[in-house]
Specification:
By secondary structure, the protein is of the alpha+beta class. It has one domain: Double Stranded RNA Binding Domain, CATH 3.30.160. It has three helices and five strands; from the N terminus they run H-E-H-E-E-E-E-H. Strand 3 and strand 4 form a beta hairpin. The protein is globular. The two termini are 15 Å apart.
């Protein structure tokens, strides 16, 4: 019951803030997003080192104006990006992946 309640809370938070998420990005896709958006004028903040797929985890934020993309890489070798719905649609189109309204729970 607690897991179901926690899941509903996360889904509500995503819906209320109009967030979307792209999950299970390969290292190549993740690096492409970081590189392309930095070339388009986005600033990479909240990180102390450059992205490297061999790192166990990595976090950073891409910022431009009032838009923010929260980028995370984990030890299982998958990346995820969280951001506002209107921005995430463009990210997904460039990568050819789907956008979700909430994280996938396992």
């Amino acid at each position: 019951m607690f897991k179901a309640l926690a899941r509903k809370y996360v889904e509500l938070k995503y819906r209320r803030n109009n967030w979307r998420i792209i999950e299970n990005l390969s290292a190549e896709q993740f690096a492409v997003v970081l590189r392309n958006y930095r070339e388009d004028g986005w600033e990479l903040t909240n990180t102390y080192r450059a992205f490297d797929a061999s790192l166990p985890d990595w976090k950073g934020k891409l910022r431009k104006g009032t838009s923010t993309l929260d980028c995370q890489w984990n030890a299982s070798g998958k990346g995820r990006i969280i951001g506002q719905a209107q921005v995430m649609g463009g990210v997904a189109d460039k990568l050819g992946v789907s956008v979700h309204t909430a994280p996938t729970f396992r």
